[in-house]
Amino acid sequence: MPANLGPDYLSAEEDLRHAQTPAERVAALEKMYAALPKHKGTEKLQADIKRRLSQTRKESQKKGPAHSAPFYVVPREGAGQVPLLGPANSGKSSLLRALTHAHPEVAEYPFTTRLPLPGMMKFEDAGIQLLDLPPIALEFTEPWMPQVLRNADPGVLVVDVNDPADLEEIEFIEQRLAEWRAPSPPLLIGNKIDVPGGEDNFAAIADLYGGRYRCLPVSATGLVGLPQFARAVFDMLALVRVYTKAPGKKAELDAPYILKRGATVIDAARHVHKDFAEHLRFARLFRLHGERDGLMVDRRHLLEDGDILEFHI
Ligand SMILES: Nc1nc2c(ncn2[C@@H]2O[C@H](COP(=O)(O)OP(=O)(O)O)[C@@H](O)[C@H]2O)c(=O)[nH]1
Ligand SMILES: [Mg+2]
What we know:
By secondary structure, the protein is an alpha/beta fold. The chain is 36% helix and 21% strand.
């Protein structure tokens, strides 16, 4: 190696050693090249850096780091995508089966299904996608799991109320989610309350975890608490359902527009039609059950679940 490499070159080389991403490597290599004295003695080195630069530039234009897990997404459908999280045998697949038309394998899961399985759960007139997953377990986690969870909405934690080991898993699962930068579940589902002693076990769990999670008792196979489950998941997603109506006509109640809580009249207008949003003067607000009939509201008015809007442009 030629002796006359200055401090700039050496510090750039140091940057390269610590670079975490292709973009950082490109930056370091560019600095090295710039700091390199250009003469006969460094020709080989110049060529070498140029070659690595062009290679790394190509890499940095690809999506994600070169050695990451294969890109895996479950296409979103409905008002939310809610993963079922929990240890093995807590009843995640049974819940999916009870609440959707999906047909997950029950009982043999840890060794059979290796992919997330979506199913559409009905909550009144809205559809919410549930994702059945293999357990988050100490021994093994699917490489695609972090990515799928990061792209999903917050999940629900499903435990078997009669299995004390499941409670120990809660900490472990939360830890993993934090490592993966995936959202923490706001809802704890205590499953299998049909088993003798199950209700008492659930009460004890709710005592213990009620401060941290909203806790809900269900029986996936006994079909107990399932409507409450659907409502709790809808609440967790913090959504509002909004309907529209043309002046002088009846409201269109077959399919709601679904927006995030906090959305306003103008957000709803944008959803419905670009022209409404651009030319909106005001809206009239109706409710499913008739109170506030036709109240005039402006574009900043905060929407509530069940609002019916009549746009005036
Ligand atoms: N008694 C009872 N058994 C259940 C209930 N839900 C699931 N199971 C049983 O628990 C076992 C594991 O269920 P599964 O849905 O495969 O759990 P997963 O591993 O979390 O997907 C199966 O034998 C189910 O039949 C429930 O609510 N009550
Ligand atoms: Mg399962």
